[in-house]
Write a structure and sequence with these properties.
There is one protein chain. By secondary structure, this protein is an alpha/beta fold. 45% of the residues lie in helices and 17% in strands. It has twelve helices and nine strands. The protein has helices at 2-9, 18-34, 51-65, 70-88, 141-150, 158-166, 172-193, 201-220, 241-250, 287-300, 314-320, 351-370, and strands at residues 37-46, 101-110, 118-123, 226-232, 259-264, 272-279, 283-284, 304-309, 324-331. Strands 1, 2, 3, 4, 5, 6, 7, 8 and 9 form a nine-stranded mixed beta sheet that branches. β6 (272-279) and β7 form a beta hairpin. α2 (18-34) packs parallel to α8 (201-220). The longest helix is centred in the middle third of the chain and has 22 residues, at 172-193. It starts with a helix and ends in a 6-residue tail after the last helix. 51% of the residues are buried.
Length: 376
């Protein structure tokens, strides 16, 4: 696994880049060695950053915020609502009108030994994030401290969403303050999308090598009743675009109540594993799925805490499609270690939480296969 993280961090894996395509080809090669079947490299339309579409919404809110009257306020409220639907991954209509490239995802299958009655989807995005002042340790310090104390982080887009909503209120002073905040946020978005790509060792080369290791084990001893799909979306850092594209294609072949999606992301923080009970503002997970993760962790003797995660991961896209979904990450002091920083390197990966994630996911997979995942 160490060599795998090293191979991935040697590539500039920004969404829509040559490095992302090279990463996909490397993963496909690993899957061929494992003996997985139905290996597919697929493409999807994407921007290179989350910032482009956020900036478009910010510009729209600023333009409408200069107008008065009921019609303008209704339009501003609509922008705020559409922005939340975009960030949550529910509806991303505006992206069709923005310049785009092609991102790359990889998927494969490990067939059940017998007649499959259910499906397990193991997900780990393989693209890497860019940096920006929005991820500077001082910028996130207050939210990190809150998360460490309470397990509840403020959604990363909350301030911008609140400012957009505030442009719809009648009070001129509030609207002026909201516009000022949106101007500052827009500048931060421009700065972020122009920065370097991080090495992405923890986020998310650790998730990739963990899913590959699980694929090796499951290929050696396939489940009797469960088909396993291993999925490595690109475009997660740009807005979960690879996962959205894959779900549109695969959804018809998957029965939601018979499909469990487990997402592995940023596993090498070294403190402890966490399971998301909510991602972003509205991406709440089913209580029974969070409870299943806690039960499996308890049986394995693994520390697992439930948190509200500030960003939206690929798991939320599966949840929106009605599937059972579990989002596993790792925290140290309330935050993912080296999140979107230049220091997210192989040398800073803590392997104990990666191993814990593999063990926990194996237990969840076994429970899903034999139907015991929901037993008390």
């Amino acid at each position: 696994m160490v060599a795998g993280v090293g191979a991935l961090t040697a590539l500039d894996r920004r969404t829509g880049s040559v490095g992302e395509r090279q990463s996909a080809q490397w993963i496909a090669g690993q899957l061929r060695e494992i003996g997985a079947t139905d290996i597919e490299i697929s493409t999807f339309r994407t921007q290179t950053s989350w910032a482009q579409v956020h900036l478009a919404y910010t510009a729209a809110a600023l333009a409408l915020g200069t107008r008065s009257g009921a019609a303008a306020r209704v339009a501003n409220a609509g922008v705020a609502l559409s922005y939340e639907l975009e960030v949550s991954g529910r509806t991303q209509w505006l992206r069709r009108f923005l310049p785009a490239r092609h991102g790359v995802s990889v998927s494969a299958r490990i067939a059940a030994a017998g007649v499959p009655r259910r499906t397990l989807v193991l997900v780990a995005h393989h693209d890497a994030a860019h940096n920006g002042m929005v991820w500077h340790p001082r910028t996130v310090a207050a939210n990190r401290s809150r998360s460490a104390r309470t397990g509840r982080a403020v959604p990363s887009h909350a301030l911008v969403l609140g400012a957009m909503a505030a442009t719809a209120v009648p009070a001129k002073g509030i609207r002026r303050a909201a516009r000022a905040l949106l101007i500052v946020a827009g500048g931060a978005m421009i700065q972020s999308m122009r920065t370097y790509t991080t090495p992405g060792a923890n986020d998310n080369a650790t998730g990739v090598v963990a899913v590959l290791e699980l694929a090796r084990r499951l290929r050696a001893a396939p489940f009797p009743d469960t088909d396993v799909v291993v999925l490595f979306p690109g475009g997660e850092e740009a807005g979960n675009l690879g996962m959205v594209a894959w779900m549109k294609q695969a959804r018809a072949a998957l029965e939601p109540e018979k499909t469990l999606v487990v997402n592995l992301d940023s596993l090498g923080s070294g403190g402890h594993l966490v399971v998301a009970r909510r991602e972003g503002l509205t991406g709440r997970f089913a209580a029974r799925d969070v409870a299943a993760a806690h039960k499996a962790a308890a049986h394995a003797g693994i520390e697992l805490r439930a948190v509200t995660f500030p960003n939206v991961c690929d798991t939320s896209i599966a949840r929106h499609a009605g599937m059972r979904a579990i989002s596993l990450l790792s925290y140290a002091d309330g935050w993912i270690s080296n999140l979107h920083l230049r220091s997210d390197t192989l040398e800073n990966v803590a392997w104990e939480t990666v191993e814990d994630a593999i063990t926990l996911t194996e237990r969840l997979a076994a429970g899903w296969n034999d139907g015991s995942i929901d037993d008390d």
